[in-house]
Amino acid sequence: MGRHFTILVLVTIVITIALLSSVLNSQVNEHIHDKNSFHFVTHSISRNKANIAWHIRNSVESAYRDHDSILNKPSEKNYMYSKFLNVSFSYKVIGQNLPETPKIVLEFPNGTGIILTFSQNLTLKVPYNTEYYIQNIICLGNVRWDTNNITFGNITTSENIPIIYYEQDLVTFNYTAQGTGFSPPLVTYYYFGSLAFARTPATVWVDYNSSYSFPSIISTSNSEERWITSENTGIIKSPTKITVYYEKQYYISVSSSIPVFALVNSVNTTFSSGWYDEGTSIQIENITQYYNSTVRSVITSISPSSSFIVNSSETIKINSVIQYYISVVIFKSIFSNIDIEYNIYSTAINQPVSSIFPGLENTNYTVFALVNGVNTTFSSGWYDEGTSIQIENITQYYNSTVRSVITSISVIPSMHINYLMLSIPYNGSKFTVNGSVTVLIYTLTQYLITFHSPYGVSASIITPSGKTNEIFIPNGTSSIWVTPNSIIDINRISHIYINISTIPKFFGIIFLHNVTQIPSERIFVISVNPAFNISVTSPLNVSVNEVLQFYVNVTSKIPIKAIINGKETYLNSSWYNDSTRIFILTQYQISPTERYVIASYQLSYLVNKPLNIVIKIEKQYLVTINGVSKWYNAGSSIYLSAKLPFYESGEFEGTYKVPVNSFITVNRSITENLVTSLNFVILGGIIGILLITITLSLLLILSGKK
């Protein structure tokens, strides 16, 4: 009876649970309709039903266990139902707090289900394969809390299911723009924590307290026109409508080498390349700009126009030129061109030149120049930057040997810096205007000095100022113009220089600065007419008698004699005239038995270039063998041999005592004589053999007679 009572109680419990489940199912079905929708709505439930659901949740494990024991069917399905899993639900909010607590719906494998309030950390034990549905959205007008996490699924393992709710505001992004020809801009904003894009106008949900951004320039802009805004970013704090205004601009390219000023919408400002609003009024001002009293800029042309309204992209070309004031002063030079640099020093010309150098200004001399290729009088005035000026060297000849010439130009900058000196070749001096300068032009009286020299000659010219200049006068007939009262000192020895033909000449002479001498060649001056030292007081003809010399380097262990141009003398390293003939003597006797001989192959030389003569010397000793004398090189070896009869022996006696067929070394004078004697050993042997032969013959004869 007790057993039947227990069964009855269990059946009663099962029936009760089934009835409650049936009632609850109707509520759950109402509760989770459209549960697969992204925006499903959870209706409220009564407190009593919630308590019943909570009771069922707490009783679900025992209910499933009792059910299986009653059925007593150990099937796989029943086994899975009897398996319970731990599951944790949690959420956090990005933004402000949720206006209400979200709900969770659980559907169990047996078809029953419950609705739970989703606390921030909820841990449950549920049957295997329980389905869950989490409320994914809560709306409050144009504000919502939404999640992009997966909010439904089947629980097949113990797990943690986190949910992130984002507070989002409904925002309308729009724009307006000046003009036409553009495409709607894209707006960037944050949606579920990630960057999103939308083509405007657009109404979208935007994460609360996140930033948005319009492009500052619409993408269809190009290098000539654009639509631009400065208020293109912000933070979303509430539902709103945002409209951005784009101003249309055109690019105005200003091509000018100097600063330009213009009235931009009647405001005086610097005018340069840049973006200007459509409709802007621009009037370019043609102003000559004076930087100081000697430098200015002048606008020469403006194209296409100096006044216009901005309604398209334009290139404004402003041609201008910088001009410098050039002051031209002509002087009577008192020194020559080669020392003029010591006459004028770096000076800031802030007063008339005539007051600095009184009495030296030459007001009667007219200077001509090629100004940008045009022949014109050259005088003080404004000249464009880059102007090419070539001073024409117009020489006034009084006769063929006396003249007055422009010798040099000193260009003195107006600023306090060292001046630039330009030496003038005969065809004039050329410079380019790149600053305000004072041009000092010097004229000078000169005398023609003509040199007649077969090889060329070097000289020192001492100018009236006392400066000494080393020059080289080329061979043949060469003339130079020299300042009166200069001193010409002809050098007795002149060197030959490498590539002297490429060195620039100034007034027919070559200044010996940074030139390289040719080694082992020189010019030796024998005489000069009128003199080696000349004071220039008039035009002169100077004749130079000179010879070309080459250096002959002699290397020898002993003093060497040679026939030089027919005269016997010692041959030493020295300078020799061109075409000198040298014949080297070959023998040098030290004693009757000792001497030196020349072993070089070449003994005769013609001096027409630098020579390096290396003398090879051999020492010899006199060697006498059996009365025959012969010279042998020191260190040589002699083989002493002799042909003797077999019955004689011999040896050499003298300086050395050695047997026949021996070698001796020659390191001094040697005398050797062959001494012979009978070879008694050989003779005794022969006699013995004869005696033995005779004895044997006698014995044979005697034995035959018996």
β-sheet strand percentage = over 45%
Largest sheet report: 23 strands, mixed
Average pLDDT across residues?
79
Number of H- or I-type helical stretches? 5
Give the N-to-C terminal Cα separation: 181 Å
Low confidence ranges = 1-81, 336-359, 415-428, 502-514
Assign an overall shape. Answer: flat
In words, what does this structure look like?
With 706 residues, the protein is mainly β. The chain has a domain at 2-164. 13% of the residues lie in helices and 50% in strands. The protein is built from 5 helices and 57 strands. It has a 23-stranded mixed β-sheet that branches. Strands 47, 48, 51, 52, 54, 55 and 57 form a 7-stranded mixed β-sheet that branches. A hairpin with a 2-residue loop joins strand 10 and strand 11. Helix 1 (2-31) packs across helix 2 (47-71). The longest helix has 30 residues, at 2-31. The termini are far apart. Residues 1-81, 336-359, 415-428 and 502-514 have low confidence and may be disordered. The chain crosses the membrane at residues 678-702. Keywords: Membrane, Transmembrane, Transmembrane helix. This is Thermopsin.
Any chance you could write out the topology, listing elements then pairs?
Layout: H1 2-31, H2 47-71, H3 76-81, E1 84-94, E2 103-107, E3 113-117, E4 121-127, E5 130-134, E6 137-140, E7 143-146, E8 152-155, E9 159-177, E10 186-191, E11 194-199, E12 202-207, E13 211-213, E14 225-228, E15 233-235, E16 240-255, E17 260-264, E18 267-271, E19 274-277, E20 281-284, E21 289-292, E22 295-303, E23 307-309, E24 314-332, H4 353-356, E25 368-371, E26 374-377, E27 381-384, E28 388-391, E29 396-397, E30 402-413, E31 420-423, E32 429-432, E33 437-453, E34 457-462, E35 468-473, E36 476-482, E37 487-490, E38 493-497, E39 510-511, E40 517-529, E41 533-535, E42 540-555, E43 560-564, E44 567-571, E45 574-577, E46 580-584, E47 587-591, E48 594-598, E49 604-607, E50 611-614, E51 617-625, E52 628-633, E53 637-640, E54 648-654, E55 658-659, E56 662-665, E57 670-678, H5 680-705
Parallel strand pairs: 1-9, 9-16, 16-24, 24-33, 33-42, 42-50, 51-57
Antiparallel strand pairs: 1-4, 2-3, 2-5, 5-8, 6-7, 7-9, 9-12, 10-11, 13-15, 14-16, 16-19, 17-18, 17-20, 20-23, 21-22, 22-24, 24-27, 25-26, 25-28, 28-32, 29-30, 30-31, 30-33, 33-36, 34-35, 34-37, 35-39, 37-41, 38-40, 40-42, 42-45, 43-44, 43-46, 46-49, 47-48, 48-51, 51-52, 53-56, 54-55, 54-57
